[in-house]
Every structure is written in structure tokens, then in C-alpha cells.
Amino acid sequence: MKIDYREATVTAGESFQIEKFWHPIIDAWSPLYRDILEPFNFHKYTCPRLPISMGALDAAQFKACPSVLRIPIKYGNSTDIRLPKELFSIKDTLIRILQYDYHINPYFEEFFAHITIDNSLVRAGGTQRFEGFHGDGLQGGKFKQKLVVEHSYIFVDKHPTEVSLQPFFVAHINEDRYNIFKEFDKQVDRKAIYHTRPCHLYLIDPYIVHASPVIHEVTSRTFFRLTMTPTELLMPKNTINPMFDGQNYPARIDVREFTADPDVPVPLDYYGLQR
Ligand SMILES: [Fe+2]
User: Fold this and answer.
1) How far apart are the CA of 211 and the centre of ligand 1, in A?
2) Domains of the chain
3) Percent of the chain residues topping a pLDDT of 90
């Protein structure tokens, strides 16, 4: 299902700073905390990891917002957050998440922060978000030089995100030629899917292979994502934040229009394995 990109208009609100505090690190053993500091690497899909549950949140604060798509609230090299008026209901939650990120992410100041909120009706048999298994922030053929990965904090009120915790073998695939997400769909064991918990916040990295579930009855669903990223997400459909100058998103062709469905057998010996 294609995501319905409604064009929201938001108005100038409030600017505030994020201060640095020591935090206890939730699931500090997770490889995520190391991997979000390193450039993207396809080999890491062989090491599955759990999304990090950061506890329950009240869905009403997100439902009170208009749907926005990848709206920037922080630019790089700054700790200044610029929050449009229409998003004030999530201010306290946002501060809590950003303070946590400041503690775990040494690139916090350099990074950009974008927010997506999707309050929408999902049709029966459809998915609210991107269909199929994928990683948020997978750097494919578009990234000739891999950057430090992005990471996201996500929340869903019901029919929560599906997560696969199996190894995926994709490092041998030519990323310029093939759609890696389609390879996840090919390899995924659908009998071994876990579900995140509704109304909980999760920290994810690009190596957490997940999908928006197919919902069988018409459902209103709320999705939130805060993405911390080393470069601005330059997508033409982004919601404009009037509190920043210079938001200019040139029209573009999606990289997936140039890639084919992979038809490459997995060379297990490449991974030091055999059946
Ligand atoms: Fe996703």
C-alpha cells in the first residue's frame, strides 16, 4: 500500500534547548548502542537484535497532532528544537526522548531530527505504513559512501509493528541492482515473527527488520516516529517547518524504481556456513 502523504500545514510554535543529563541505559547490552555510532554495514543483518522497549506512552498526545511527514524539528550542529504549535501535545515526550538520545548518541548535536505522525484510517486488508519487511535507514545504492546510520524512536497505538529476529543474508547482493527489502521478504520466516507492544515506545536501528502489519478490519491507527539522522532527510513530500529557513526538497526519482527484485541464491559459503 502506498502511504497517503497528506500535506499538513503547521505554524510557528516554540524553540527550546535540550540539555544533557546522565541516564540509565535501557538494555545496555544491546549491539544497537554500538551500531548507531558506526557507518551502515550490510553484514550486520546477520546479527538480529531486539527493538529496545522504552516503556508505555499515552496515545492521546499523538492523536491530538495533525499527520506530519518527516518534519524537521532540529537541524545539524545545534541543540535547538523548533516545535510547531500543532505538535505541542508531544512536547514533554519529545524532551524525554531527546534527552535520552543526547546521553546515548555522541553525535546528537551534529544530527538532524525529523518527526512523522500518522493518524489515519487503515483499510481492511491493508497496512498503514510501508508494506513488507524492511529496515528504517538502510543505506543502499544511493549511498556510495556509507554514513553513520540513522536511528528512530517509534510508537504505535494498536496493531503494533512486526519484528523478525532471524539472521538475514544480504551482504552479497549488489545494492545498485536489487531491492534489498524484497530480499528480506524472500528470506523472512513468517512463522517466527514477534510483535511489539501497543502504546510502547521503541528505539530501533536499521538492522531491526520489521513490517507494518496487515490489518484485517478498517482501523484508525496512530503511528509516531522520531528519526535522528546525520543528514537532513531530503524528501519532496516532507512537511515544512516554518521555523526553519532553507527547506528545499528537489523532486526526485525513488531509488527503488531502478532496482529489480533479487533473484540471487544465498551463497552460504560466503557466510562461512552450509546446510
Ligand atoms: Fe519502518
Assistant:
1) 6
2) 14-19+30-228 (2.60.120)
3) 86
